[in-house]
């Protein structure tokens, strides 16, 4: 989860599509008047700011490992941001609501981290997180195959990741074992993306960031061309756009 691989401009390209799971997640958090709300892996912070609107008496704090992302974050009363690795970050006081949207797939030891976050909650506090569940989809499987190919394995073979998150029931059991009441569900969004090489444009801001950060400019363009060819076959462009199914898995846990 390197701090220097994130490009805010690329990440914002599909801001509306990325925001929808955040809203679907937070909508299920039934905290009435939390005093302290934290968004872990907050990115550029626009969605963090919406937490301050949702809970108008709360102090809201966003944390992200990317200084480039935090530099773009809004500033307002009751709203603050910090550059930090979530693996090391600890709150100065109990937290009433912890939100983490599409972060934990980047943290191999995230199960231990979830246990610590539950400990950081105030009595009756809420932990809400969402992770992608599409690691078997062509958008990921084809890239894994490409990185492991003879052309690219020397450069990128060690970056190939199998599914970095578990099955939903794994997290249900983990959170229930920590004494939480758990609401778990999944949704597959069918995003309709505009333009050419639309799925490539999407994953350039997420899954491809470690690969692109490693490659020299010339090799980077060759790699993107190979990605574009494979993805165009798997996700053909139609007159209405490119359909991109994206499964996400959601968890809202309350400390009881």
Strand and helix order: HHEHEHEEHEHHHEHHHE
State the CATH superfamily name of one domain. Answer: Vaccinia Virus protein VP39
Spans of at least 5 consecutive residues whose pLDDT stays below 50 are none
Helix content: 25-40%
Distance between the termini: 32 Å
CATH class of one domain: Alpha Beta
Q: What Rg is obtained from the alpha carbons, in whole angstroms?
A: 19 Å
Proper CATH architecture of one domain: 3-Layer(aba) Sandwich
In what order do the strands lie side by side in the largest sheet?
Answer: 3-2-1-4-5-7-6
Please tally the helical runs, counting DSSP H or I stretches of 4 or more residues: 11
**Count of individual beta strands:** 7
Reported for the largest beta sheet, the result is: 7 strands, mixed
The assigned structural class equals alpha/beta
CATH-defined topology of one domain: Rossmann fold
List keywords for this structure.
256 residues; alpha/beta; Rossmann fold; seven-stranded mixed β-sheet; globular
Question: How would you explain this protein's 3D organization?
Answer:
By secondary structure, the protein is an alpha/beta fold. The protein has a domain of 172 residues: Rossmann fold. The chain is 38% helix and 25% strand. It contains 11 helices and 7 strands. A 7-stranded mixed beta sheet has the order 3-2-1-4-5-7-6, with helices on both faces. Helix 6 crosses helix 11. The longest helix is centred in the C-terminal third of the chain and has 18 residues. 36% of the residues are buried. The model has no long low-confidence stretch (mean pLDDT 94).
